[in-house]
Structure formats: C-alpha cells, structure tokens
Amino acid sequence: MATLTASPTAAGHYAAAIERAERDRLHEPAWLRGARRSAAEAFGRMGVPTVRDEEWRATNVAPIADTPFVPAPPASVPAEEAARFLVPGLAGPRLVFVNGRYAAELSAPGVRSAGVAVSTIADAIEHAPEPLESCLTRHRDYAGHPFAALNTALFDDGALVTVADNTVADEPIQLVFLSTVTSAPAMSAPRVLVWLGRNSHATLIETFGSLGPASGFTNAVTDVVVGEGSVLDHCRVQRESESAFHVGRTEFRLGRSSRSSSHAVALGGRIARHDALAVLGDEGASCTLNGLYLAGGRQLIDNHTEIDHARPHGTSHELYKGILGGRARGVFNGRIRVRPDAQKTDAKQTNKALLLSDEAQINSKPQLEIFANDVRCTHGATVGQLNQDALFYLRTRGIGLDDARSLLVTAFAADVTSRVGLEPLRAELDRLLAARLPGLLAGEVRR
Amino acid sequence: MLEIKNLRASVGGKEILKGIDLAVGRGEVHAVMGPNGSGKSTLAGVLAGRHEYEVTGGSVTYDGRDLLDLDPEERARAGVFLAFQYPVEIPGVNNAYFLRAALNAIRKHRGEPEIDAMGFMALIRDKLSLLGMDQALMNRPVNDGFSGGEKKRNEIFQMAVLEPKLAILDETDSGLDIDALKVVAGGVNALRGPDRSAIVVTHYQRLLDYIVPDFVHVLSGGRIVRSGGKDLALELEDRGYGWLDTEARPA
To answer: Which class in CATH covers the domain with range B2-248?
Structure first.
C-alpha cells in the first residue's frame, strides 16, 4: 500500500472548514457525527496528496491544496439554465443540486414504480437513515482516499436512491450537480448512495455541470450497492467548466450474479480526477467500466480505475478512450486485482488515447495483480494520432479536412458512446461531443 | 482535360517520377502499365494529392487549373476520383453516412442542393446492383472487415455515385477473381461517356480485355517509355516488360 505524504499547511483551510462544519452540525445524529469525525481524522492524517504519492504521481493537485476554497454559498439557478444539464427526452425522477445544496424548485423526486425511492441525503438522515448509516459507518476504510474522507467530513447533501427487492425502476433517475460562479473560490461535496436490493434494476445518470466559467472545487463521492441478481446501468457525465477542479470517486459493490454497467464521460475541469472502484464481492458478478474523456487547452483529466475480483466466476470489461488536444494531459491507471479465491475470472481491459496535437500527453498504466491461476485477464493500450491514410481517403472523396478529422474523432469516441443502451442518453452524449469537437480540433496543427 | 508535363516527384528524398508527359482528352481512357516499382502508383497518388509525395518539378493542368495547387478534397470536388489499390478501412465511420457526406460536399461545390438520407438511398439502389453489392454493406463501417473483392467493388461503387470527370483506377484489378473483375469493369464501363475520362493503372493486360483503353502507356523507371494503342497492351502481355528497359535505355 502506498503511503501518503501529508501536506499539513496546505490542508489548513480544509481543517478549518471541517472544524466549522462540526460546530454547525451538532443537531446531526450521533452515528453520522461519529462517521464524520473518523473521516476527518483520516483526512487529517493523510492531507491533500502530492505527486510523491504513487496514486497521484501524474496528477499534481497542488492548486486544490493551495486554493483557500470556502464552502460554496447558496445560489439560485433559472430552470431553463438547469435544463441544459438534463438529458432531453427523458422523463423520470430528477434531483438537482446547486453548489451542493438541494434545489427543490428544479427537482422532480416523484417516482412511478412502487419500491423505488429517491430522496435527498438530508431527508434520509432525518427520516430513514438506513441504508445510509450502514454505508457510512461499516467497514469504511479511507486509506489512500483522502478526498473521499474529506467528502464524508464535509458533505452538505446529495441523493439517496433505493430500489427494493424484485423491483424494476422503469424510469431513469437523473442526479444533477451544478456549480455557479462565486466571488471567492468555493467548494462543494455532494454525496450519493444508490442501493439496489435483490433482483432489481435501475438506471442512474449523474451529471456534474458548471454555470458559466465556475472555478470551484467539486469533491464528489458516489457509493453504489448492487444486490444479488440485480442490474444497474450507470452513466457519469462530468461537464464542468474548463477552469473547475473536480475530484470524484465512484464505488460499485456487486453482489452475487449481479451486474453493473457504467460509462464515465469527462469533458470539463482544469484538473479532473475520477476514481472508479468495482468490487466483485460475490460469485458470478459482472461489471462493465467504460470511460471517455476529451481534454484540450491545458486541461488535465485523470481516470483511475480499480476492479477487484474477490470471488469466482466474475467478469469485467473495461474500455477507456481519451481524446487530447492542445496541451492537455490525460492519465489512465487501470488496476485489476484477482484475489486467490477468484478462480474463473474473465477480465478484459482496453485503453486507447488519441492525441490531436504534438503537445498533448497521455500517461497510461495498466496494473494487473493476479493471484489466482485459472483466470483469463487481458489488457491492451494504444496511443495514436489521427490515421493519415484514413484522412487522405476521406479527402479524396471530397470531404474537407476539418470534416474528415471530425468524422474520425467522432468514430473514435462512438466506440464508447455506442455502448450506452439508453437511446436519449446516447444521443445527448453524441451531441455533447459534437459540440466540443470543433474547439478541440481547432488547436491542431494542420498537416 | 488533363495535361501532365515533365512531372517529377519524390518520396522520402528518392525520385520516383522522372519527367512524365501525358495528355488525357475528354472522354478518353488511358491505360498506364508497367512493372512493379515503375512509379505507377506514385503517379496515381500525386494526381490525387497524397501528401507524402513531393512534387519536385513539372506541372499538371486539369480543366485549365493547376491541379497540384489544389487540396485533395478540392480535386475531388472538381471531379477527380482515385480508386485506391488498397482501400482504407475506417472503423466507426458508417459507409452510407460517409458516402452521402462526400456526395453532398461535391454537390455543394457544384451549387446543387444537398441530398437527404432518403433521397440518397434511392439514388444508390441501382448503383449497388450494378456492382453486385449487398445493401447491408452500406450499414457497415467504411471497408472495415470487407473482403478484398468487396473493397474494390466499394471503390467503383463510390465512383459510380460521385460521377467523377477524371477517374484514376490504381490497380483495381489486383486481387480480383475473373467474375469480380468483370463486375468491376462493368461498373467502370457504365460510367464511360464523352465527358468522362479515365486513367487505368495496371500491371496486367487482363483488366484491359474488359475496360478497353483508347491509349496505352508504359511506365518504366519513372518515365513513360512507350505509348500506343490498345495493341501495345497485348504486346506487353506476350513479351513482358523486360524488352522495354533495353530499348528505352539511352545509348
């Protein structure tokens, strides 16, 4: 286990924020205050990571350590502005949060299916603490995850989604977290728990967005528990501004014969880091962890994934693709752990990066830790530029250089988006990519 | 229509074309033959605008314009079409979408309205059957996973849809069995007309049984060493290329 080097001075303003929060939250139930206290202590021990820490070697979060972020102030957002961050053509429950706080006027928490509940974390703490209490108190290990600890210590609100046994949530559930431009650098820490019982099914879309050139810090944690025989479709869309700081962690805990399929799309952030962890904790679990990221200018987008095959007959498929222009940097770190008990594991990891400029960079690192002998694990990584032969071919048919480049980049990305099953979401992702491409391609040196 | 004068071109600093002169009139079909390494594909690539070929001398005039001054897409819009010896596979780009985008780019250049997906499917139906192509190929990525024969048919099919004024066929016959060869030749012949010209680059005379040229040129060592009528191709078939080197070599 890598050790973290604490950065005590840098963490000073976070310590102050934690102290303030503890004073303001005396009304919270004892179990929660206890959970927050131990998380705060864990964060205090670790501090904000530095590049000396192996897990953060390629991603320097000094600006996050050094900027004196204060808790984001309340703000109101016009409904038509917030609507830009909802997937068009999707009915169903949605919760919208602005600067980490629930925006009731923008939300529609009502559900159609009995057995499905969508509420705010604040509500859940007050009225129905389970399964939140278990999630926050039992077996919580923050080692190596200082930002997750910080989130637990500080979160104001977020969403709790529960789906009872033998229940199909027939409408996709949308959670939207918006940040506004603030006078002082601001941070928010949204928290999400999704809990599926046995033999249930749900679709969840999480969107993180900025209104205007917001340059705050979002530190998000989502916990997903998928019960025996259940199926979760998940999509995470991070489309914050290019001056925002974003750190997110998503943990999937998969029960026996359960399945999760997740797509993480990252477009925004000056520094954006997402950690996805999937624990295949019982036999026959199956997980898909796909990702797509686009970065230009001086953006840094880091994806760390970890798939933990703990039990036999697990299957994991992972496809991450990055498109990098300008002086952007991408980081991909994909760890697959196959524990001694996890025989008959089938794991496949692929990661590909497309560099659109000479100054764009990718750091890519697969980490396979295989402790069982009867398994199949494959990984492949490629880094390349646009195929010049394909560009020439398209141009000889009359398609202009810009359109030809756009066609090829779109095709590269569609390899991921085409795997999204929900058609309106797929169309929205394609639209977001199409809107982003001209700017990304404009930075490329013409050949 | 096309006038090539003393064209010289190199690739990676090595001169491949050493002064080509060739004039193609309206409606004419010219065959360019020659042994491997004679510069046939380089000539085709230079005419289409392949960037790794550096033109070091001479000129190419097409319809009164300096062809070498145009980007590949501008050449295509002006009516030049290259059927590739090795068509490029483009995973993720839908064949129908790609070809409609190409057609619309060309139509736009001609001042014609863009054609929608429905109109496009109607337009290509006959051309698909002309080339004996399964419509299912249109819903696949461009050339991706196509057999060698399917790729070559797809080239000629694209040509039939885009209706170029000057078609350059680069070894379109290579890798085709005789039935496929006849189909491909039929597609090329269907496009022949008083306003359409073609340069047929081939190593073998076989293709010229089906696409009968008006003129035959022999390329060797980066120069045209012999020109003649269609009988020249038959002579090459009998005697091979060896005798040309001896005759063409300056004393």
So the answer is: alpha beta
